[in-house]
Write a structure and sequence with these properties.
Layout: H1 7-16, H2 18-31, H3 65-68, H4 71-81, E1 104-108, E2 112-117, E3 128-133, E4 138-140, E5 147-152
Parallel strand pairs: 1-5
Antiparallel strand pairs: 2-3, 4-5
Bound molecules: zinc ion.
């Protein structure tokens, strides 16, 4: 099976339907004015990491995930409550073997991305995890030869200066770093 994660695609889907959601919420409130607004930021209200803190449990009660989760876990829960899968766990294209000319594209919003290959047809070999980075986006499965390419869909780099580092991540040196660049 092939897995990938992309928050950006989910965010785009979320952006496409806020009007509908607002309509449902307003209807619910009008029907019963006693329904209090939630004491936490909802998915569409989340703007910064600070908005991803739960309200905590009432004294003497055991907290639910909704009450106590924070960070990405909280964003995932808030998204699911509104029908948005923020990690986009849909499988990759498994209808063919990737080639250098036509690789299987793996979307990524981050600097690194891992894809699990099980060959073609799917599950014809044990899962092999392939790591791709923005610097070296193409990877080939050593078992079946399928070629994958990371398609970066995250935010653009800072406009002020192009540094060679990506937010502190540095790939470990390998023999590839010491051969001619055209072999890299
Ligand atoms: Zn493979």
């Amino acid at each position: 099976m092939f897995l990938q994660r992309s928050a950006v695609a989910a965010a785009r889907r979320a952006a496409a339907a806020p009007a509908l959601r607002r309509g449902i919420a307003v209807t619910a409130v009008r029907r019963n004015d006693k329904v209090p607004a939630p004491n936490y930021k909802t998915f569409n209200e989340v703007k910064t990491a600070q908005d991803l803190l739960g309200p905590g449990a009432k004294p003497g009660t055991v907290p639910s995930d909704l009450e106590q989760s924070t960070g990405l876990e909280r964003l995932e829960i808030l998204g699911k409550m509104e029908g948005v899968d923020i990690f986009d766990m849909r499988p990759l294209d498994a209808s063919r073997l990737g080639t250098m000319a036509d690789p299987i594209l793996v979307r990524s919003a981050g600097d690194e991305q891992y894809a699990g290959c099980t060959g073609f047809p799917a599950d014809s070999h044990n899962v092999i995890w392939l790591g791709m980075t923005r610097k070296r986006p193409i990877e080939r499965c050593p078992e079946c030869g399928s070629v994958y390419k990371m398609n970066y869909v995250g935010p653009d780099d800072d406009a002020h200066g192009h540094h060679d580092h990506h937010h502190g991540f540095e790939e470990p040196k390998t023999f590839a770093d010491y051969v001619k660049p055209e072999y890299y």
